[in-house]
């Protein structure tokens, strides 16, 4: 009986050892690599998104509107986004004065997209020449849709090349893996869209999954 028990115990231990080896060998994750490819490119030739605000007296309002309408002929993308007229006197300043148009101020904001710095400079000079009180802010970059699509494809290819270089390093050389999945990732991470807008850059990020081969 003791010999029988010893034999059964040895058999069970052997089966457990074999089972453990089989589980380790069959783990599919050991045969795969996953990397993130990245590429970032400056865009010094990109256009500008501008925010132009007139903030001045009512008696110059119509003159500014006329100027803005003429500018729209050169820059069709120009769009009025805010128009505000407000009383510019505090109650204690009024005394017994009657309300007059000169007591009002007006504020008008336009969003403008320009293709280059030359157009940007002409707009600034034109506003100065007309003597309008204004604020002009750069709110981001602009690329024509067709050109943007072309750039995105080029950047994605370069991000994929970066991922392949990482796979070559991790697998021990080219030809030792097979790509089985590519996923485009959020290209605004980790800095957010403001970083890329104000630094005039575009970026691409892709997640690449590859299966290791026996070559």
From TrEMBL:
The lineage of its organism: Bacteria, Pseudomonadati, Bacteroidota, Cytophagia, Cytophagales. This is Uncharacterized protein DUF541. It comes from the Bacteria. Residues 1-26 form the signal peptide. The keyword Signal applies. Keywords: Signal.
């Amino acid at each position: 009986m003791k010999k029988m028990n010893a034999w059964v115990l040895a058999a069970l231990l052997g089966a457990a050892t074999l089972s453990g080896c089989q589980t380790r060998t069959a783990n599919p994750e050991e045969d795969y690599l996953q990397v993130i490819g990245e590429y970032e490119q400056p865009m010094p030739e990109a256009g500008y998104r501008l925010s132009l605000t007139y903030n001045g007296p009512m008696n110059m309002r119509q003159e500014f509107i006329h100027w803005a309408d003429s500018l729209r002929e050169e820059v069709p993308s120009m769009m009025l986004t805010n128009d505000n007229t407000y009383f510019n006197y505090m109650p204690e300043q009024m005394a017994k004065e009657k309300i007059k148009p000169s007591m009002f101020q007006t504020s008008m904001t336009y969003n403008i997209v320009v293709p280059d710095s030359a157009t940007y400079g002409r707009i600034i000079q034109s506003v100065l020449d007309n003597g309008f009180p204004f604020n002009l802010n750069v709110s981001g970059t602009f690329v024509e849709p067709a050109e943007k699509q072309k750039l995105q494809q080029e950047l994605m290819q370069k991000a994929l090349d970066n991922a392949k270089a990482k796979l070559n390093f991790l697998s021990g050389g080219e030809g030792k893996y097979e790509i089985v999945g590519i996923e485009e990732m959020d290209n605004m991470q980790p800095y957010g869209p403001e970083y890329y807008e104000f630094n005039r850059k575009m970026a691409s990020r892709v997640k690449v999954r590859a299966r290791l081969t026996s070559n």
